[in-house]
Predict the structure.
Amino acid sequence: MKMKNLPLLADLYEFTMAYSYFEHRMQAPATFSLFIREYPPNRGYFVSAGLEDVLDFLESYHFEPQEIEYLDQTGLFSEDFFQFLLKLRFSGEVFAIPEGRIFSKDEPVLEITAPIIEAQLVESYVINTMNLQVSIATKASRCVCAAKGRSLVDFSLRRTQGTDAGLKAARASYLAGFSGTSNVLAGKLYGIPISGTMAHSFITSFEEEIDAFRAFARTFPENTVLLIDTYDTVAGAQKAAEVGRELMDRGKKLRGVRLDSGDMAALSKEVRKVLREGGLEGVSIFASGGIHEFKIARVIEEGAEIDAFGVGTKVGVSADAPYTDMAYKLVQCDGRPVLKLSTGKKTLVGEKQVFRTRRDHRLFRDTIALRDEKLEGEPLLIPVMEKGRRTGPAESLAAVRERFREEFAELDDSCKALQSPRIFPVELAPGLRGLQEKTVHQVREKELGES
Amino acid sequence: MKMKNLPLLADLYEFTMAYSYFEHRMQAPATFSLFIREYPPNRGYFVSAGLEDVLDFLESYHFEPQEIEYLDQTGLFSEDFFQFLLKLRFSGEVFAIPEGRIFSKDEPVLEITAPIIEAQLVESYVINTMNLQVSIATKASRCVCAAKGRSLVDFSLRRTQGTDAGLKAARASYLAGFSGTSNVLAGKLYGIPISGTMAHSFITSFEEEIDAFRAFARTFPENTVLLIDTYDTVAGAQKAAEVGRELMDRGKKLRGVRLDSGDMAALSKEVRKVLREGGLEGVSIFASGGIHEFKIARVIEEGAEIDAFGVGTKVGVSADAPYTDMAYKLVQCDGRPVLKLSTGKKTLVGEKQVFRTRRDHRLFRDTIALRDEKLEGEPLLIPVMEKGRRTGPAESLAAVRERFREEFAELDDSCKALQSPRIFPVELAPGLRGLQEKTVHQVREKELGES
């Protein structure tokens, strides 16, 4: 499922532009910046995610004859161009903010510098994979905050927007602190712990609920988690307690029960009471069904006896913010800073760097600068690809997850508020501000006749 | 990109249930219904889409040794079970509402009957692909209504939720009446017409805007569409008109201009004026940028001079309804009707059929019935797979698109209203209602001790 060698996963305009550049022999280096223009509602930071897929894609970028054959059918391009494409590899450099770091709107999370045709052809894939993974990682991080240490498991596969999203949602939510996923293929591909026990269909396939519980406990005596809301949650808990005692008699232990509907705070307290009265201590109560950060916060506030949440659709599609306003814009061409003036669509010119400062071990402020400006603070963008090859081995997901955990702990709680968070502060460095103003002035003069 | 042979694209609980069924030698035929519980906001019908992918998946379902190896690492399953999985193929039957038809909440859009392990293991993939494609096809159909005959092109790839969604969004929106896509791979895979010309980067990569226009016109004299909002839309239109006149001098014709920002109704009128005054008639004006059904309706209402819309993110992720409440529920097991009672999650028991009646060549009402009930009207579910094989060749996307066009024309405008539409009426047949009540009664008696 790595998106290797899919150069046609692009918008046609990338090929028509590339062909026109080819015809006009435009091979100058171009720098494109990937950034997000605005925060979606209730967001004041983003979590970087998706870079590994971008690097895989760039490293393996090439055309197969059957792909050229399809382009030929469009009648838009010449044989010369196809010969050029067949030899094309990505030869450029990539600066990026590593996965698992906090970043802000307007900040380049990634900058690609390459001959303009190469940098242009990869546009759609780069946005596609980064936009999704940043959205999900950011959404998942909000759930992690809300859960205050309780365990979260990704249950979203069934209703993510397609199969690729199912895998990426599992990866991005694990990166942001989830403890596992129900998605088996994601477990295999990314080494994420997987979990899962039974659906309502398992219960209803048996004549009686308790028959289903007993059957499952026989099959998985070490890993019995029973879904108790098929008919009535409290009645289900009583039957689960009965099976739990039967397990105890065999020297085993009921691991948990799962609620999937109804008033979770109230039901979880009743269920805990039933379990305790049945002599069962230390049984985990899992909750699933329509879970998102606000619901987690609410049921915890209401004193829910819930140890872990199965988090599905609303995080897997980032339902309240199903996309970001991420753009991939040409910022420098053949050494010349460039930008567009389109209404409401500001682009910061030039090759850039972001410097992060801390105060008292907390994240304090970022400054977006030109890449050659020297400022205090930690530079966030690092060279991850040179001449089309990674500068080092692929990072492990475990390392990325740990990096996020550490940096997220340094982010002020005010920025993590679920509603109306403080926006993490960012400013522009003098060099960038100066070049930006100068470029805007020049463009207005040249294109609009202003002086 | 066909999702063949990905049996691990499943939730772990499907495997734990399957293993418990295997251990208990439960091989009875089970029927699962796929349906949507509620309408998202502003929806009163759904468009069926995704069935071809489901059938591809089922026909090619099998396990490879490396997949078994991963399952083995979990330590949950026995060697006997792995031997069983290695021989497993999908052997069941599928009844479904064909792609491109209108359907309603509560109606089974698909029913699978197979030995319970087979029917259970495919759950997540079936929901995943149908939920996405139904969401997008339904959203796209709303844009088609709003556009009143104007052409719509899918531009969503860059911000769909992953690569699979990018392809499916192109397919589902074409199915619902879009005229093409910018997505090259979708064009290749599905035979959808592709279109695209230039981005702002093309403009800014040249010293001056008009240089970029001239370069593009030289490369594509038969297909020149110029993006005119990079610096100032009206100034851009004047330069486009100049290049249009240069094309005329060479016996060619400017095909169109594209606006991508600002007040589209007002700007399109100004642009039309500039083109007319420049002696250019018949130049298409394309609009893109944040397009959705409400924006299309509004700019048309405001008298926009727009001939076609490029429709991106907000439709590609179905931003106002990024998921449906689609469920895949066991409704019959070994001949016994089954259901769950969980709060707010009704399931209709048994193998079902939907009968559609018309009045005066308009869709009038659907009735959900047991499959063996005989009612007036057209049965919507047809047998599309028997013994694990398609009952006929795969349908062409063109045929599905035409089916949708015809049936959508029969749907009353009140159901197509963009806001607060009338819900397409559906009722339950007497046989289904009777069995449903009887089953609820039996389950309540058995599980809750009620009589």
